[in-house]
Structure formats: C-alpha cells, structure tokens
Amino acid sequence: MYEVRFHGRGGQGAVMAAQTLAEAAVIEGRHAQAFPYFGAERRGAPVMAFARIDDRKISIKSQVYEPDLLVVLDESLLDIEPVARGLKKSGKAVINSRKLPTEIDLGVEVGCATVPATAIAMEFLKAPIVNTAILGAVARVCDLVSMGSMQQAIANRFGEKFGEAAARSNAASAAAAYAQAVVGVCKGKRPLAQKREWLPGWREIPIGTTLDERIIEGVAVGPGGARQNLTGSWRVQTPRYDKEKCVRCLRCWFSCPEGCIKREEDDYVRWDLNYCKGCGICSQVCPVKAIDMIKGGSR
Description:
By secondary structure, the chain is α/β, with parallel strands linked by helices. The protein contains 7 helices and 13 strands. Helix 1 crosses helix 3. It is globular, with a radius of gyration of 21 Å.
C-alpha cells in the first residue's frame, strides 16, 4: 500500500488534490481512497488530506501517520507544522517552493521535488489554487500514477465541477509543473517542528491558580491561541499604503474583516501584518487608491 499525506492551507485545494490523485489511480485499475482533515477555521488555515493507493481493496480508514509521499502545498507550513513527522526514510516529498531541493531543510533527508506551484497557478488559473500544479510535480517525482492518468483525472474532476475551460487550464497547470519541477534531495538537519502544547485558559484552571497575562494588541489572551497562529503567514499579497494620498476616511478600517487595520490618534492607519491575510478588501474600498496590493507575503 502506498500512502500520501497532503499539507496545505484552506483554499489551496489540498482535498481536491488528494481526491484527484485517488481518481488517477482508479483510472489505472487500482484501489484508492482519499479524505480530508481540517479544523474550524477554513480559508488559509492549515489542513491535511490523505490518499491511499493499493492493488488490493483498502480496509484501513485512519489518517496517514507514516506516509510514503509527503506533499506540501505551502512552504510556510514547514516552520509551523510538523509536516515531516512520520515520513518514511525511503519516502519522498513534493514542496511548493521556488528553492532548489538542496535548499530545503525538511528535517528528514529524502528524495524531494520542488516546484513554483503558486506562480504556475497564478499564470494559468489567475488564483493561488495550487492543487493541480502540485499534482504535476507528484507525477514527476514518483511513478505512483502516470502523467496521462493524472491529466485524465484532472479533466474528469475539474471538468465535471467547473466546466471544460477550467479542465483545460488546470491540466495546463499540471503539465507546466511537471516540466518545471526540480528533483533532488532535501536536507535533514533541523529538528522536526513540534506543535506547542495547548495550555489552559483562565476559564479552565482551578480557582486560586494564576496565569501570566499575554497581550495581543487590543486583547488579552491565554497561552497559545492567536499568539501561536500567526495568520499573516497565509498571505500571498500584502497591502501597500501611501500615506500621502490618504484622506483619512477610515473606510479601510471599517471594512477589514479581521480587524488588522489599526487606527492611529491622527486617523491615519497601519496594518498588523502578523494577522493580515491579504484579502485586498481595504484596497478595493479605498476611494483615493491610497492602498494597493503587492505580490508576496512581505512585511
């Protein structure tokens, strides 16, 4: 049995990628399963998806704890999630990154392919939905399924759900990633990332116990929580503010769905980029175009 674990963020298509890989295996006459695992917050939040492929009927239903193939749709997850935990020594990895495999420190030295899947998705799909691009790299790095079967599965799944044009563009994205993937060996020097222990909040501890107060701007929280989950790392674009153009109408401040825009005493504004997800709403509502969005998650 061949087991695959996908790590991505909500909205990148990790679940669809697992389902499409499973369908490609079925096209080749094999047995396959695919299913997701995710928490309460959706778009941008870390998610996992799993796939299993075998020549015999698959009865196991658990998550994949010791994958043969690790697929990372967002490179920033390497620093905040233990993505390589359980990866077999004989396993392989596919990572969405502009870096060479030898520049990636996964914590485990394994065969690795890197591909600029976000750039490819923006070129062909005009959105940072990297699932089909990453699947092209998966077909390149291992002989799990053929590229022909992968293309057919993409056409079937995306064509049925989104139409023929979407099927063509997603197939083209996969083909480009197949051609651009760089195959090598990643480094295994750093210790595998460990999730921080979730400590109890004030409602959960016995009376008489004390906790150190943790402050995020505007709110006091217990250990863990938003201090640990810096949602700004999800950004693929960042607001750029021209203070000279600003007329201090505060429309951006009113409209920010995450409360990441902070109002100064003089009614100019600034962004808390630790938590800004780069949705671009502030840029859209600004009447004088004092805010524009630039590519990347820069600070």
